[in-house]
Write a structure and sequence with these properties.
43% helix; 16 helices; single chain; binds adenosine-5'-diphosphate-glucose; 2 domains; Rossmann fold; eight-stranded mixed beta sheet
Length: 458
C-alpha cells in the first residue's frame, strides 16, 4: 500500500539536501524516508492563479506533490483561521483567539481545493495520512469527491477541554468534519479524553456526529540518529567555537520557535529569579536561548517578539557585567548536528512551554546527553512529553519561583541521580521512537482490530 502523507507545508529538500525545521517537518521526513511514498501539501508559495493539479518532484523514494495558494488564501486560511483562531484556542488561550467568518470560509475553501488536487492523483489502495490543525476538514472534502480510501488524521497540538474548544465559532463544523476520518490520533491520554468528550455533548446547540476512533499515540524522535549526531558533534568546529565562546561556565539551554505557547518570556523571568535568589551563581552560569522567528506576520507573534526583546534587555542590563552576560539570545536556526552538539554540552535543558502538544526538543535534549555525565531536563507539566518523561524535573511554567528552584536543583544534582534519571528517559526514547510511532499509527489505521488490542506507550 502506498503511503500518502498530507500536511500544510511540504518540506522538500533543496538541491543541497537541506530542508526546513519544525517538529512536524522533522518527524514526517523521518517517517517517509523509511517507507517511501508521496508527500502532498502547500509549496509555501503564493500565486494569483495557482495550478489546480499538484506539481510533483521525485527525490529517491519520496514524491513531493505541491500546490500554490493565492495571497487571499494565505491570509484567510494560514495566517487567519489556522494561526489566529485554532492555534490559540487549542493552546488554551481564549484571550488571544481572533475569529472572522471570512477567514473560516477561507480555511474551508483551501481544504476543498487541496482535496480536489490530491483526488486527481490518488490511487484506490493509497493509505492517506493527514497531519495537523490546518487540515481538519480535509477528509470530509475528499469523501464529498467520492474518495473511499482509509484516511487517518494526526493532531500535533493539544486538544483542549470542551469549555475551551466549544468557545471557538465553527467548533461544531470541525467536529463534524473530524468524524469523516477512520482514525484520529493525538499525543496524550489527556487530549484523547478531551476530544472524546467533545463528541459527547452538543456544541453551540448543534448536534454532533458519532466520534471517530481516537488513539493516544505520543510522537517520538529518530533517537538513534540524533544520538549519533550528538556523538559526532564533539568534533564539529561550529559547536566547538560556540561552546568555547561561552567559557567554562555551566550552560542552561532553551530551543524553541519564537511562539507565545513556548513560554520564552516566562522562562527568561524564571532564570532572572534564579539569579536573584542565588547571587553566588551570578557570573557562573549562562542561559543560551535559541528562538528563530516564526509566523512573524501574525500580530500576536510580533508582540511576543517585542516582549522577549524587552525582558532580555532588562535582565542582561540589570544583572550582567562587563565580563558576563546572563542570557545569550540567538534568533536563528541551526543544523541538527549543531543543535545536538549544543544540547550535549548543556548541563540543563529548559523546556517550559505554557502548553504544548508534545515538544520534541525535550526528547532531543535527552537523546543528545553523555551516558556517563548527562545533563538534567526541566520540563513543563503542560507539555505532552510530561505524560511520558516522568524522570525529568517536572515544573509549572506559570510559577517562576518553582522553575527557578528547579534550575538550582538541576545544576546541583549529584551525578548518580542524573545518570539514573537519564537512563530511564533514554530507554523510553529508544522504545518509543519515530519508527514505533509511525508503525503504530499505520497499523491502527489499517487494522480492523479494536483499538484496545493495539500497542500503547505505557
Ligand atoms: P513545534 O511547535 O514546532 O511542533 P517541537 O515539538 O518542539 O515544536 O519541535 C520543534 C522542532 O524544531 C524540533 O525538532 C527542534 O529541534 C527544531 N528547532 C527548533 N528551533 C530550532 C532552531 N533554532 N534550529 C534548528 N531546529 C530547531 C509541533 C507541536 C509540538 C509537537 C510537534 C510534533 O507544537 O507540540 O511535538 O509538532 O508533533
Amino acid at each position: 500500500m502506498r503511503l500518502v502523507v498530507v500536511s500544510n507545508r511540504v518540506s522538500a529538500p533543496n538541491r543541497e539536501g537541506k530542508a526546513g525545521v519544525g517538529g512536524l517537518a522533522v518527524a514526517l521526513r523521518a517517517a517517509l524516508r523509511e517507507r517511501g511514498g508521496v508527500w502532498f501539501g502547500w509549496s509555501g508559495r503564493v500565486s494569483e492563479a495557482p495550478a489546480e493539479l499538484p506539481h510533483i518532484v521525485q527525490r529517491g523514494r519520496v514524491g513531493y506533490a505541491v500546490v500554490d495558494i493565492t495571497p487571499l488564501d494565505r491570509d484567510e486560511y494560514y495566517l487567519g483561521f489556522a494561526n489566529r483562531a485554532l492555534w490559540p484556542n487549542m493552546h488554551y488561550r481564549l484571550g488571544l483567539t481572533q475569529f472572522s467568518r471570512a477567514e473560516f470560509a477561507g480555511y474551508m475553501r483551501v481544504n476543498r481545493r487541496f482535496a480536489a488536487a490530491l483526488a486527481a492523483i490518488i490511487e484506490p489502495d493509497d493509505l492517506i495520512w493527514v497531519h495537523d490543525y490546518h487540515l481538519i476538514p480535509f477528509a470530509a472534502e475528499l469523501r464529498r469527491l467520492g474518495i473511499q480510501n482509509r484516511i487517518g488524521y494526526f493532531h500535533h497540538i493539544p486538544w483542549p477541554p470542551i469549555d475551551v474548544f466549544g468557545a471557538l465559532p465553527g467548533a461544531g463544523d470541525l467536529l463534524t468534519a473530524l468524524a469523516a476520518y477512520d482514525l484520529v490520533g493525538v499525543h496524550t491520554e489527556r487530549d484523547a479524553g478531551n476530544l472524546a468528550r467533545s463528541f459527547a455533548e452538543p456544541v453551540g446547540g448543534m448536534p454532533v456526529p458519532a466520534a471517530p476512533r481516537i488513539i493516544a499515540l505520543p510522537i517520538g524522535i529518530d533517537t538513534a540518529a540524533f544520538r549519533a549526531a550528538a556523538q559526532h558533534a564533539d568534533a564539529n568546529s561550529v559547536v566547538q567555537r560556540m561552546i568555547s565562546g561561552l567559557g567554562d561556565r555551566p550552560l542552561v539551554i532553551g530551543v524553541d520557535r519564537l511562539d507565545y505557547s513556548k513560554g520564552i518570556v516566562e522562562r527568561l523571568e524564571a532564570f532572572e529569579r534564579f539569579l536573584v535568589a542565588n547571587p553566588d551563581r551570578r557570573g557562573n552560569v549562562t542561559l543560551l536561548q535559541i528562538a528563530p522567528p516564526s509566523r512573524s506576520e501574525v500580530p500576536e507573534y510580533e508582540q511576543v517578539g517585542r516582549q522577549t526583546d524587552e525582558t532580555l534587555g532588562r535582565i542582561n542590563s540589570s544583572l550582567g557585567d562587563t565580563g558576563w552576560m546572563p542570557i545569550r539570545f540567538v534568533k536563528r536556526s541551526y543544523t541538527r548536528p549543531v543543535l545536538a552538539g549544543l544540547f550535549r554540552n548543556a548541563a540543563v535543558g529548559l523546556v517550559t512551554p505554557m502548553r504544548d502538544g508534545m515538544n520534541l526538543v525535550a526528547k532531543e535534549y535527552v537523546a543528545a546527553q553523555r551516558p556517563d555525565d548527562p545533563g538534567v531536563l526541566v520540563l513543563s507539566r503542560f507539555a505532552g512529553a510530561a505524560e511520558q518523561m516522568r524522570e525529568a524535573l517536572i515544573v509549572n511554567p506559570f510559577d517562576k519561583f518553582e522553575v527557578a528552584e528547579a534550575i538550582g536543583t538541576a545544576l546541583a544534582m549529584p551525578k548518580d541521580e542524573r545518570i539514573a534519571r537519564w537512563r530511564v528517559l533514554y530507554e523510553g526514547l529508544c522504545r518509543h521512537d519515530i519508527g514505533w510511532w509511525t508503525q503504530s499509527f499505520l497499523d491502527a489505521l489499517t487494522a480492523s482490530a479494536p483499538l484496545a488490542a493495539l500497542p500503547r506507550f505505557s
